[in-house]
Amino acid sequence: MASILVSEVMTGTYEFEDSGGDSVKNLSEAKVDVEYTIREIETNDNELKSFLFTLGCYEGETVTVISVLAENYVISVKDARYSIDWELAKAIIV
Amino acid sequence: MKIALTGNPNSGKTTMFNAITGKIEHVGNWAGVTIEKKEGDIKKNLNKTGIEITAVDLPGAYSMSPFTSEESITRDFVKNENPDVIINIVDATNLSRSLFFTTQLMELGIPVVVALNKSDLNEKKKTAINVKALSKALGCPVIKTISTKVSDNGLEALISKAVEVKGKSQTAPYDSKRIDFANAKAVEASDKKRYEFVNSIVSNVEDRKVSSNHQTKQDAADRILAHKWFGIPIFAAVMWAVFSISQTHLGPLLADTFAGWIDGLYAWTEGMLGEGVSPILSSLLLDGIIGGVGAVVGFLPLIMVLFFLLALLEDCGYMARVAVVMDRFFKRVGLSGKSIIPMVIGTGCAIPGIMATRTIKNERQRRTTAMLTPFMPCGAKLPVIALFAGTFFDDAAWVGTTMYFMGIAIIILGALIVVRITGEKNARSFFIMELPEYRFPSIKRATISMLSRGKAFIIKAGTIILLCNAAVQVMQTFNWQFQVVAEGAESTSILASIASPFAILLIPLGFGVWQLAAAAITGFIAKENVVGTLAVVYSITNFIDTEELALVSGGADVASVMGLTSVAALAYLMFNLFTPPCFAAIGAMNAEMEDRKWLWGGISFQFGMGYVVAFLTYQIGTLITTGSLGTGFITGFIAVAVMVGYVVHLVIKGNNKAQQKLKMSA
């Protein structure tokens, strides 16, 4: 059982891809306290996309990363704070 | 007349519902606490019309297009049940998001009144909203409210305005009626325009001095409380403090006073019965009912202190941060951070906890969470924890804290196994959660929450638990020939003969006697019964002593009556905590899982987990404390090996399935 646990933790560790220069592509590479304009939500999950839309998180709107906590990002959209995970941050193209 | 309360999650709908109806529904400072609609009549002092007005509290929604099942409850209600008026509760600190939903509600043709709630928070942030201009722009009345305040909260004005607009027509400020809803592109374009329209209103009516995307003290607090490394130790320390106060310090102090009253009742009843009453009846009344129920109710003060503290934690906004901290670990095992919400609610009672799994979209995650939520020690299990902590471990706070973290550890392990069995380890999911603002917790709300939970506890003790204890007492008094069991021949009683076969199975766990088996069995009806039945079968009138200021009178005496070592006692405690929950909670699991295979798999898993955990605790603990293994090691080991072997077999099968899926998608 212990070995399963270890392997799960190992495979679960995300590998951060090289961002390739200074240009920030998505929210996971964004600098804290800088306001970005969303260019696209890159996902096949239409439901997620629509849900983000109802929160005011869609192309043309602005978003600011407030803090980075382990694998979660605290972001400010409209006048609220949300915690999103790394995968979602990667899907928000700025 | 019917009024629907609608609004974004955590805008304060249930707080307002409680304030206008006088009901005490569960509230919390986080999104998604309400998952079902609730109805109540509006209080007379707010309703001057004389007509009966029913308020309907609905789960929070961000829009009319439902993304979660509780959002669709809201949409279906306002669309199908034709409320006379909609009160749209708008979080005044977040106008730009909330008004999106408001403009959608106004298209329904039902008169809308906007309650601009949390307006007190805006004053603190120096944000001003021009209510008149907002009302004009929307085309509906707007009333400032602060539903957490007792007076001067705008609620009376809100209700009279709602009565006034009934039957009147309003024009929607933004109308999407001509749009072809089958055309996704057109809908998207229309919704974007809607947001533009909302933005233009907000820029006209809102005067914001401090932009919301600047760092605040709250953000600094988040960085500490949800920190990568400190998050978990802080959570552990908070839980330890909760247990220390409720189980070691304040709780026992109150419990002592309370136990004095129960002792008094016992003595008074004994005196009233006098000499002439049949000994069977008097023992049924005294030992069975007052003794058994009293033993359970004696723990009420401890539980109420604990509920009070948990309510404070929920109210201050900390729980949403706990979800963020746990997300990292839950994601590793195929659950989402949202799974923590049912588990936190499950600390009160597993049933609403299991029902809260509805907020999880992914079916497998939802079922897994419903199956694992009962591992969190609920309110009914607290008397059991308190009894064993008091009897065997000198009221130590670590016992309760450890049980919570054991629960979390078992949940994580369980999720890991389930995700492997289902072969869906490669499935991806996203996590997003609104972080509510921290606030100073309200003593009043915590008190109300504590009292309502305490009341439910007393009602349960006076009904189910009373009946069970009476039944246990009768079954213990008589044998199958309905003759009174002779002294020294207790093992011939009905109770003993039913429980004995089960007791044999429990020998490898260190507590293979019929009394303990009987208590564990009655625990499936309600977990408090474990305490009540132990009191009856060992005829201990009261676990709590008034003289010594000790929670459990002569802990050593009780321990010796039960004939358990500390290690076996800990094993017994864990067995009771981590086996399947009570029948009512199993019923809730059935309802939320909607699948027989999952239900029976879940129950078997819970049985297996309880057995394995108790076995390991007893055998390893005995090995450490005495240097040799406990009784029945070999048989128990075989049983555990078979169970683990079967799970491993299922995991391997699941892995193959996962690989096939990968190949198919490749």
UniProtKB/TrEMBL annotation, chain A:
Domain Ferrous iron transporter FeoA-like: 25-94
Annotated InterPro entries: Fe-transptr_FeoA-like (IPR007167), FeoA_core_dom (IPR038157), Transcriptional_repressor_C (IPR008988)
Keyword Nucleotide-binding attached: no
Domain of life per record: Bacteria
GO molecular function: transition metal ion binding
Entry annotated with the keyword Iron: yes
Record key words, sorted: Iron
The protein's name in its UniProt record: Ferrous iron transport protein A
Species the sequence originates in: Marinisporobacter balticus
TrEMBL record, chain B:
CDD domains: FeoB
Keyword presence, 4Fe-4S: no
List of residues binding Mg(2+) 1: G22
Annotated FeoB-type G domain residues: 1-168
GO CC terms: plasma membrane
Topology of this chain in the membrane: Multi-pass membrane protein
Family: Belongs to the TRAFAC class TrmE-Era-EngA-EngB-Septin-like GTPase superfamily. FeoB GTPase (TC 9.A.8) family.
Annotated NCBIfam families: feoB
Descriptive protein name: Ferrous iron transport protein B
Location(s), subcellular: Cell inner membrane; Cell membrane
